Amino acid sequence: MSMSPAELDVILLSLKVALWCVGISLLPALFIAWLLARREFYGKTALNVLVHLPIVLPPVVVGYFLLVLLGNRGVIGAWLLDHFGISLIFNWKGVVAATAVMAFPFITRAIRQAIEAVDQNLEVAALTLGRSPAMVFLTITLPLIIPGILAGITLGFARALGEFGATITFVANIPGETQTLPLAIYTLLQTPDAETAVWRLVIISVVLAFAAIALSEWLTRRSTRRLGGSV
Q: How buried is 43 (Cβ within 10 angstroms: 0-12 exposed, 13-18 middle, 19+ buried)?
């Protein structure tokens, strides 16, 4: 079960991408989730559909749209390259972008469900006592939705670890640069006499997913007990 340097690079890159994916997605997902759960506005249905579109679209289609928008000649990609020298094609930053788009709906949905489960009477009571909307969110809503946030983080992290279609379409399968666990397994499946390496990476994938879910469950139970004790 000893890993080669190339396999270790794949694992470290996958963890790096998953952590960055969750890190850059969390605050936007929190805002969008609150917006969808607590506000009525023109275009709400369209926003909701747009957020959840990556779940129902084939990942390859999402990857193609990313290529059109964020490629070096894309609408946004060309602007990033010209003004900031940032290129998302064929490097790990592009993998983060692809995984973030695919994971964002899962993070947003988990947080939105948590917000909708919060008793709005608590928020209204705080507002009538003179608290600002921002303080109501920070002191009442946010502590109550921590389990939902943790669930969203876990789902997003796991989705990032397992992302394949959008990634390979947008940034290709480059060893040491864009090759994450699913892409490495796909490559090995097409390599003669690589069954042992495939099983090694498959087991590592299962262990990482199991560890993420177990950690989330532990943190959720701990935060729930803490909230219960503070009531």
A: exposed
3-state secondary structure of 86: coil
Question: CA angle, 102 as apex, 105 and 177 as ends, to 5°?
Answer: 150
For 137, residues 6+ apart whose C-beta sits below 8 A from its C-beta are 34
Long-range Cβ contacts of 86-90 (<8 Å, 24+ apart): 88/170, 88/171, 89/170, 89/171, 90/171, 90/172, 90/174, 90/177, 90/178
In angstroms, the CA 101 to CA 105 distance is 8
User: Which residue, among 47, 13, 28, has the nearest Cα to 167 in the 3D structure?
Assistant: 13
| pLDDT, tens only, 127-142 | 898 888 889 999 999 9
Supply the pTM of this predicted model.
0.90
As a whole number of angstroms, the distance between CA 8 and CA 209 comes to 17
